[in-house]
Design a protein that fits this description.
heterodimer; A: mainly alpha; MetI-like fold; B: alpha/beta; three-stranded antiparallel sheet; disordered N terminus; ABC transporter (chain A); cell membrane (chain A); MetI-like (chain A); MetI-like_sf (chain A); membrane (chain A)
Chain lengths: 287, 410
């Protein structure tokens, strides 16, 4: 027991230190500065809760919250549906399933910025040409230039890229289910649909949980896709909270104010993740 | 189950972040490496050529050019980290003002280099820094002009004359539109391109002291910018089918391909257009904002200034590079390639393209960019972009006022 403990410590202490230096400490600094009027450089004074009160009065932050949540919820649902379907497909006995797995994983390896620029080209040139050719009026203009549709373009790109990672997690889950269960179910006369709802879905519940939590968290922090596709425009219609914090904090010299915004956002994300875990853990099967 | 997975995910991310932190600065072979930070994608090739020349003259100095997208935000980020580049080639705008006030830039006042610059541009950048910090924290290098660029072949085809008043300008746009052609090629997917027209209009309608008065609470967008907003909305009616969906780079190519008669851009777009179509005949004129021709001024600002980090370890070498850049031959080369104007006395832009705005430079009917004096972080270009989509003037002007005040009060 003693030996086990020391090994455990040797492994965890460096990891903890690194995490603290590069993650926790800057986060604590940010929390500290959120009570000041620091611009990112120069002198600063304590201003108490002024920054926090200003965030709640800030229309721009409100709009960013609305957009981010709309985006994150839609993208999370889409990603999980699509990646679960893809995973089930890749898990079945089809030809080339190893090659196909590699191909499906490719989007995840590409840099988001590069993907964004490629899709930018597709939205700006390729789709309008198709729209012109078929006479579809709604496609003849770049959807990223329309404040009501631009967010859909970002959802498409974000989902396309995120599906691969979640597919891998679902595949890992599907592998854990033993074939015997399906055979037994077949003997009892269960169809494909029944097998999915009664066996597959309950048994990969832990994976479903982690996928939901991770993808919602990631989509709430959406940043690169927006920088590459719209830069927050047209107008401010696709400005996510991360982008607002980054832009306002560095470009606008509102370091302290946006730190307060970041602290609030941190709390919001934690609350959402905890609620998700509580809710989803309830329905996990003890295995 | 869940705990195991979290541990796995944690270990993965930690490993990845460790790897990311392992970038080295390359081998040091007795050479001094300077970083030159530039905010312009257009001048990358020009700089590469100039750097080659400089390195040939100074074999013990190596210059690394860095021109990232969203350059100003990147620069602010680095300011926060106390990691300023040795030499900066940035625009004379609100961001420069902030850097100057932060006291992180070398003061050039009284140096021989600063004396070679036209005094009006030195004043311009000093005004950006404001009275809080005494000094000249950069060397104005290249200046620009906000103009209306036109396609000469198409211009003649439609039988147009260079307009001197707003009404004449609209009449020519109308004429082109009636002939079934596209008058102006807008590229409003990139919000900043909307500021070209906005600045020309604002400078001529709202006056030069708008920002000072606004900060003192003596005026407002509501009061001064009503006409500007109306005229902006009028101009957008003369665009193409997808004003909001085309970005700057694509716009340059489209205009070079003869897709429209007019193009509202600065001189910096001209090399880009000529890259796409080297034989194109271009002309420029200042946007005639009012109906009194003698009152129309050309908007020109400091497009590029050279600044040196105050805390750089290689100040001597950085100064050497600044001297090399300020040399008349180098300056001439820069403005010839970039189709810009020089802030250095005695260096002139002789390109025939600029026939239409030469007079403004000679008789001084020039005014500076209004938005360089807006508080940074107000995001004016996105607000203007939004207005051009929604066309709700009252709400937009109110928002401009409230955003300005909000940023001021933080």
């Amino acid at each position: 027991m003693k030996k086990k403990n020391s090994v455990f410590l040797i492994i965890t202490i460096p990891a903890f230190l690194l995490f603290f230096i590069f993650h926790s400490f800057p986060a604590l600094q940010g929390i500290f500065y959120s009570f000041t009027d620091w611009k990112g450089y120069g002198d600063w004074n304590f201003v108490g809760l002024k920054n926090y009160l200003n965030v709640f009065k800030d229309e721009r932050a409100g709009d960013a919250y609305l957009f981010t949540f709309k985006f994150a919820i839609v993208a999370t649902i889409l990603v999980n549906i699509i990646s679960l379907l893809v995973a089930i497909g890749l898990n079945s006995k089809i030809k080339f399933h190893k090659t196909l797995r590699a191909i499906y994983f490719l989007p995840y390896i590409l840099s988001i910025l590069i993907v964004g620029f490629i899709f930018n080209f597709i939205f700006a040139h390729f789709l309008p040409q198709i729209g012109d050719a078929f006479g579809w009026e709604f496609l003849t203009r770049n959807i990223l230039g329309n404040p009501d549709l631009a967010w859909i373009g970002i959802v498409i790109v974000a989902v396309w890229q995120a599906v691969s990672f979640n597919t891998i997690l679902y595949l890992a889950g599907l592998v854990t289910i033993s074939e015997d269960l399906y055979e037994a179910a077949s003997i009892d006369g269960a169809g494909v649909w029944t097998k999915f709802w009664k066996i597959t879905f309950p048994l990969i519940a832990p994976f479903f949980t982690i996928n939901m939590v991770l993808s919602l968290k990631n989509f709430l922090m959406v940043f690169d896709q927006i920088v590459a596709l719209t830069g927050g425009g047209p107008g401010k219609s696709t400005e996510s909270i991360s982008l607002l914090i980054y832009r306002g904090g560095f470009e606008g010299g509102e370091f302290a104010y946006q730190s307060a915004n970041a602290v609030i956002y941190f709390i919001v994300i934690i609350v959402f993740s905890v609620i998700q875990l509580k809710f989803l853990n309830k329905r996990e099967v003890e295995n | 189950m869940f705990k195991k997975m979290t541990a796995g995910v944690m270990a993965l991310t930690l490993g990845a972040s460790l790897l990311a932190g392992c970038s080295s600065d390359g081998a040091d072979d007795g050479k001094v490496t300077l970083e030159l930070f530039s905010n312009k994608s257009e001048s990358i090739e020009t700089y590469k050529g100039l750097i080659k020349e400089f390195e040939a003259e100074n074999p013990d100095i190596k210059i690394k050019l860095d021109a990232p997208p969203e350059a100003e935000t990147v620069l602010k980020t680095r300011l926060t980290k106390n990691d300023l580049p040795d030499i900066m080639s940035i625009a004379g705008n609100a961001t420069f003002g902030e850097l100057g006030r932060a006291g992180v830039l070398e003061d050039f006042s009284g140096t021989d280099l600063a004396k070679t610059v036209q005094p009006s541009y030195i004043d311009m950048i000093n005004r950006l820094v404001g009275p809080e910090a005494e000094g000249t924290f950069g060397l104005p290098y290249a200046t620009n002009a906000n103009a209306v660029i036109y396609n000469k072949a198409k211009f003649e085809e439609h039988g147009l004359e260079v307009p001197a008043t707003w009404d004449e300008f609209i009449a020519s746009l109308e004429k082109v539109k009636a002939a079934g052609d596209t008058p102006i090629y807008f590229t409003l997917k990139d919000a900043w391109t909307g500021m070209i027209a906005w600045n020309s209009l604002g400078a001529n309608v709202a006056g030069e002291d708008f920002a000072e008065k606004k900060n003192a609470g003596e005026t407002s967008f509501m009061e001064k910018y009503d006409e500007v907003a109306d005229k902006m909305a009028t101009l957008v009616q003369y665009g193409h089918k997808d004003n909001m969906g085309v970005a700057y780079g694509d716009g340059n190519n489209a205009f070079a391909g003869g897709k429209s008669v007019f193009y509202l851009q600065g001189n910096w777009a001209i090399p880009e257009i000529l890259k796409a179509n080297p034989d194109m005949e271009l002309g420029v004129f200042p946007m005639p904002v009012t109906n009194a021709p003698e009152q129309n001024k050309l908007v020109s600002g400091v497009d590029v200034l050279l600044a040196v980090s105050e805390s750089t370890e290689h100040k001597e070498e950085a100064m050497k590079f600044a001297e090399f850049m300020m040399n008349k031959d180098t300056a001439q080369k820069y403005i010839d390639e970039q189709k810009a104007f020089s802030a250095i006395e005695g260096v002139y832009q002789e390109d025939p393209v600029f026939e239409g705005i030469k007079a403004n430079f000679e008789n001084g009917t020039i005014t500076s960019f209004p938005d360089h004096y807006y508080p940074a972080g107000m995001g004016a270009e996105n607000l203007v972009q939004e207005f051009l989509i929604k066309k709700d003037k009252e709400k937009f002007l109110k928002k401009m006022d409230s955003e300005w005040e909000k940023v001021q009060n933080r």
